[in-house]
Amino acid sequence: MYRLYGARRCLATSAESQARQSQFNVFDRRAKLVQRSRIAQLNPQLSRKKEYLRDEVALKTIERLAFITRDFTKVLDFGSHSGNLLKNLTIKTEIPVGADYAETEITKQLNNDKLVIQDKIKQLYMLDSSKELLYRDIDEPFNKQFKGEVIRCVGDEESFNHTCLEQSDQYDAVISNLSLHWINDLPGTLANINRILKPDGLFMGTLFGGDTLYELRTSLQLAEMERKGGISPRVSPLVNVNDIGTLLNRAGFSMLTIDAEDVVVGGFPDIVSVCEDLQAMGEQNAVLSRANTLPRDVLLAANEIYKSLHGETDDKGVTTLPVTFNIIFMIGWKKSDSQPQPLARGSGQVSLKDVL
Fold it and tell me: What is the pTM of this model?
C-alpha cells in the first residue's frame, strides 16, 4: 500500500509540474524553428529581401541607443536573427534622392550615431535558435567593418541553454529586436535577461504588439465565419502595450520607457502576397492549436473582404493591400544602488496646489 501511495503521489506531482509548465505553452517552438530556418537555408537571397521590417526596426533601435551616453563593453543581441542590428550599425544609410534639408540632416545624424555606438561596443554576442539564419550572412562584407569582436551563439531563447547565458551579472546591455513575441514563458525569459545583466545594465527590446496584422486577422475571421460558421487561430496572439510595464516590473526592471509605433507596409496585390512575405520572414502562424490548412474558398473570400475593408485604390483604379505592424519599444534598467531613488513618501516641501 505504501508503494502504491508513493507512486500515485509521484504521478500527481509530475502531473502538477507538467500542468504548470504547459500553462505557458501557446506556441510550437519546434515548428517556429523550422519556419525561421527553411527560407534562410533554401533561398538566402529571398530571405534577405524580406527583412525590410527587421532592418527598419534595427535602425529605430540605433536611434534610441544614441541617446544613451554610457559605454557598452559587452552586449548581447538576444534573438539576433541574421544580424540586422550588426548590419545596420556598419552599413552607411544613403541620403534619399530628392531629400529635403531636414531629411538630409536626419540621415547624416543617423550615420554619425552608428559610428558612436560602434565605438562603445567591444564585444557583441549574437544569440539565435536558428543556426541557418544566424550564419546566413557570416561572409557578407559588413562583418569585417565592425570594430569590435562578434561571437555567434546558437541556443534556444526560451530555455537559456547556452553557456553565454549561464553567468549572472555579465552584460552591460541586452538588445532584442522582434524575437520575444514567439516566447511562451515571456515573464521567465525577461527575468533571465535581468539576471544576466550587470547592475544598472540596459535592456532594450522590441516586439510585435496586439494590433499587428489586424487587417489580415479580421479578414480571415470574417471569411471563415461566413464559409465555415466558426473561426480558427490563423494569426498568433500578441502582447498588448498596456501589459509591458507589468511584465518588466515583475522581471525586476526599473526606470521603464515604453512606446509603440505602427509601421504600415503597402502595395501588396493580394492576400497571398501578404502570406508569402510573412512566410519568407519566418513569421507565419505557430500556435499549437493552429489549423493545418487554409481552405481555398476561405482564402478567396478573405481576399475580397481585405480589399473592401482595408484596400487602398490609386488614381488608376488599382487596389492594393496595406499591412500594419504594431511595434512596441521598451527600455528597462536592472536595479542598482547607484540609480536615482525616489524621495520618501510625504517628504515634499512644496504643495502642488501652490504651483498650479
Answer: 0.86
